[in-house]
Amino acid sequence: MSVPERLVSFVEALREHSILAGPGETVDAARVLAVLGMDDRERVREGLAAALLRRSGQRTVFDQVFDLYFPGAVGGPTDEPGDLESLREQLVQALAGGSAQQQAAVAQAAIEAFGRFGEGTQGAGGWSAYQALQRLRPETLLVRVLAALRADDPGFLADVRRDEVRRQIAGFRRMVETEARRRTAELRGRESVARNAVAPPSDRADFLTAGRAQLADMRRAIYPLSRKLATRLAARRRRARRGEIDVRRTLRRSIAYGGVPVKPAYRHHRPGRPELVLLCDMSGSVAGFANFTLLLTQALRDQFSKVRAFAFVETTDEVTHLVKAGAEDPAGLATRIHQEARLIRWDGHSDYTHALQVFADEYLDAIGPRTSVLILGDGRNNGGDPNLAALRRIVGNARRAYWLNPEPRRLWSTGDSLAHEYAGVVEMHECRTVHQLSELITRLLPI
Amino acid sequence: MLFDSVDEVAQRLAGAGYLTSTAIATTVFLADRLGKPLLVEGPAGVGKTELARAVAQATGSQLVRLQCYEGIDEARALYEWNHAKQLLRITAGRDEGWHEARADIFTEEFLLARPLLTAIRNAEPTVLLIDETDKADVEMEGLLLEVLGDFQITVPELGTITATRKPFVVLTSNATRELSEALKRRCLFLHIDFPEAGRELEIVRMQVPEVSETLAASLVRVIGALRALELRKSPSIAETIDWARTLLALGADQLDESIVHTTLGVVLKYEADRKRAVADLKVFG
């Protein structure tokens, strides 16, 4: 494959992961290659990133695709791989030395020795990072690495060092994954691997399937994201202040000038910030989504005159005070809500019937004519009655109400989901990723 | 061309007191070679503005800086007619006709050049720094398009002024809002993140040479641990250097729990973050 062809198919693979580089960028990338040459791989990587990327969240995807299209090596390592124990010892040395090159070499050897599964070149066979890591078990090497470092840090620095080694081991796991992808790509073609095996960036990762690390990444993005959303809301507010023409008053005024609207009258802009009420399903399956949204609205609280949060599983309770304190320990918010609020009555399965009823009976005064209500949940009621009457009362009182559903639209009303029933009463939006959530927040929230 | 190779970029910027990573050196080299503006994004305090200053110093260029803020307009960024001087000129030449006066008051003499025009007209090598581009309004970006795309400025009364020598342009942004696609397309993109431990150690040693090797190493190590926590604002290079200076001023020659506990406020600017770090690092003073 010639260099331009490879570059073009690389850009196409990036586009499939919503990194939208146009032909102009591709030409720039080609110029970059012409200037830099292909000698130094890391420089080529940085150069292409400079030409093709437009925002910082795209980098992880870019790196994974880059490793597929511009691999650092071809085939397996040339020298005979050692046995498990010698590999583990090599890894200890590489981790203690902190050399990325050595670690990558161990990753290559590990995939070569233990990563192979299946037979033949068609379909079934491939290289598995999981399998190799199961044999190698790098996380059990912590003590040996520390011993090899001969670290005798005093006091808390010992803990710091231990965490550092843990992060290095996590980095090594990623190297093994990269290596497995590369070898699989040689077997099955890089297009299919690029399409299927590259993890999405954290703002496009699904709330419902995100792992712990991805959820932590999302939480880390909350403050930058809230600043960005606040700027967008402020821009909308500024534009809205210019106002629409008030037809009735403009016509009334025009009478003085013989029917010519010399001075148009504008509609008054009502000052004051809106109130926000969140009603969140905190049951296991959707808690991650609710947790994130609660923290985000908390970070955005100065955009609203008041934010109140309610959580439910079987029954509803107010959690505003817990969310307020949640900034100090964002990861533990869901746990604290479960411990301190009264959400469970019998078995801990979500019960929209009762939860909506309790909210409508006890907390309806939280909703006034200036309030926007966001209901977060998947609408899976374990076979119970939808209780649309209570939902209608809640929606009827509010200025605006929306339902954000973390499930993909095609799963709505499958199984025990009542999504379409609820969608008949309140506007429902699919909200699966951080990206979708921030789009919805800037579009839906009143200003 | 300011630089001949990537290595030369790294070397000369280091000479100007700025240690580069592969990403920074490569992208600066490309921006110079391809003649494209460089859009630098990243958290506060990782040395975005400093990069422009270092490039200027390393190449002996003049640094022209445009600080963006909300409401910045043409008159502040491009050029402005010196109205007071024009009025004086009109009153001074009472007897002349309209045509002579008009031909005379719209000349270079009455033009006040603002940063963008200054950078375009400068015949000497120039580094144009457009700082915190995201703070400016969207309308301002439209203005930048002509300047950054073609390196020219149109003054209706004078005609189009084209750069005789393309300035090296650096735009910085804290990403508080998305810049427009049109603007981004014209730039090379560089995301500067927190540096890896080795480079950060070198930076500390370079900026605060008095600090001992072991202290600097454990300092960088603790900063790395802090960045791994979920904090509202992770410490960046600027904070690391501040901390090194603080420890130096206190005469500490090694990090222990009590000194970390008392000086953590230098690094973490939110009380919640500080509490979190104290609990997680187990430094209780």
If you had to describe this structure to a student in words, what would you say it looks like?
The complex is a heterodimer of chains A (447) and B (285). Chain A is an alpha/beta fold and 447 residues long. Chain A contains 20 helices and 8 strands. In chain A, helix 5 runs antiparallel to helix 6 (100-114) and helix 9 packs across helix 10 (190-196). The longest helix of chain A is centred in the middle third of the chain and has 33 residues, at 156-188. Chain B is an alpha/beta fold and 285 residues long. Chain B has 3 domains: 6-73 and 114-191, 3-Layer(aba) Sandwich (Rossmann fold), CATH 3.40.50.300; 79-112, no CATH class; 197-278. Chain B contains 14 helices and 9 strands. Chain B has helices at 6-15, 22-34, 48-59, 74-77, 83-92, 98-105, 115-121, 138-150, 181-185, 197-207, 213-228, 237-250, 257-267, 271-281, and strands at 38-41, 62-67, 79-81, 111-113, 126-131, 152-155, 159-162, 168-173, 188-191. In chain B, strand 6 and strand 7 (159-162) form a beta hairpin. In chain B, helix 1 (6-15) crosses helix 2 (22-34) and helix 12 (237-250) crosses helix 13. Chain B starts with 5 loop residues before the first helix and ends with a helix. Chains A and B meet through helix 2, helix 3, helix 9, helix 11 and helix 12 of A and helix 2, helix 9, strand 9, helix 11 and helix 14 of B.
